[in-house]
Structure formats: structure tokens, C-alpha cells
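An instance noted here:
***
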Amino acid sequence: MLQKFSKIWIATFLVAILAMSAVSVHEAQARSNGIAAVVNNRAITFSDVNDRVDLILRASGLPDNKEARSRFEPQVLDMLIDEQIKMQEANRLGITVSEEEKQAGLATLAQQNNITAEQFTGMIKQSGLKLSTLFDQIEAEVAWGKVVASQVRPRVQISDADIDAEMARLEQTIGAQQYLVSEIFLSVANPDEEARVRQSAQKIYQQVQQSPEKFGALAVQFSQAAGAEKGGDMGWVQGVQVEKEIENALKQMGKGSISSPVRSATGYHILLLRNTRVLDQAGLPDREAVMQSIGNKRLSRQARGYLQDLKSTAFIESRV
């Protein structure tokens, strides 16, 4: 069975962070009721953007200052636009998210911190964050997971021949270098997005350079790869499993280092090299793991394509 695609892409909240004082008043609040973007017939306000930036900064433990906010605001607006597209498609298909499903998402986050949902909710409120901002993100990702399950997953086919070919290819790499990698991946679906995505990748890279310990939290929020919900974890990979540009970058990296944005055929990758080893027979994945890997990659790729098709036919006006 393929790994469930829908995950709650929200950084794990740290108790110490949530116990901080209420969010300070920002200059941007003066324009909070203004419209930042329009997606078809729905508006995204500057207040929406500010609230999500607050959530990300507090959740990741990053400093809340003008520099950090200016780095993240464009990416956050892109996220909110995508969420609007996802929710509108879910509505078109008659897909809804129940209150129980939202609460289950909240409970999952609380469990990650070994506290109850009630304690978690209290901490969010005490920190000055809006609980509705968190639920909006949970709802969008759960709804999109249902869209992907109904519209994309049935198209993902994996044959025994696919698995056999991948296993044979991996057998030939015994003795080769393996890399334990995490990534933040930003997709470039069409040439019109090139400059904007490159700039976004560079801003995220600047932030992880300053706060490398926040790599996982930023991956959860911004990465568009299948492993985003796990802090960008790609697991152990070798050259034959990744694009040539990524392999070349990994060969030049030392343990614990972070790469500047690497352009591949599909987008920009910021890589964290956590460890290296030489692959032996015991390190080879079994058939089930190979099937999961193939399926998740295909599902992720097709889901991104599905979203891009929706965006290409939508009316999107950014006023930033």
C-alpha cells in the first residue's frame, strides 16, 4: 500500500516557544484588512498573511523581526494561494473536512509534543496565536489529501517489472557511497515561475544558514517533496536514485553541511547532508520498501502536476 500522501504540513510546536509572550504588534497590521491576492472569487488579506507568518515564526522558533518577516511573506502568500486552489477544488468535488478530522490533526500535533490536545490548544492561545490559522492549514491539507486520493492515486500504477528493475539497479550499486539527506524542495512547474521560485529558494537558504537547527521545521512548512512532513527526510540515497545535479552537489558536501539551492529539472533543492556510508547487501531495501518509494515519488509528482493544472486555469492576482 502506498504511503498516505496527505500529511499535516505544519511545524512541530515546541513547548518553550509557545510559552513565550504574545506576538508583538507589527507595522504590517496597519494594512491587515487590505487584499494581498485574489484567487478566482476569493480574497486573501494581508491579515491572513501576517497570521500565517506569525504561526511559522513561532512554530519554528525563529526570531520575529523585520528581516525574517520580509523573507517569508512572499512564500507564505504563495502557500495561501495554493491552499485556496486546493480548497476550491475540494469544494468543486464535494469534498469536505469534518470537525473531527480537524481535531484529529490537532491531536496529532499535540502527540508529537507528548501533551494533550487541550494543553496544546491552551498553549497556542497563550502564545497570542490564532487557533483558526492553524485549523485553516490543517483543513486545506486534509482536503487536498482527499482530492489526491480520489483523483490522482488511482492513476499511479506500479508493476512487478518496475519493482524488479529498481531492485536490480540497486543491487548494482553495492559498494557505492550512500547519503543520508534531508531536503527543502520548491517546484518550478513552468518557466514563468523560474525567477520567483529561485528567489524564494535563496531566501529560505539564507534563513537556514543563519539557523541550521531549524532546517526540519522550515522543510515541514515550505518543502513540496513527499518527505516534507518528516522534516524533509529523504532517507539514505545514492547517485542512481537522485538527479545528477543533486548527486554532484552531495559529492562536494561534508557531513552536516547545507547546500545552496540546486536547480534540477523539476525545481530547486536545498540539501542537508546528515551522514554518509558505503552501501552493503544488508542496506538494500526489500520489495515493499521499493514499491513504497516508487509509488510515493510518482504520486508526489502527479499531485504537483494536478495542482499546477488547476493554477494554470485559475484567475490569480497578487497585489503585493
User: Anything to note?
Assistant: The first helix runs from residue 15 to 18. The chain has eleven helices and seven strands.
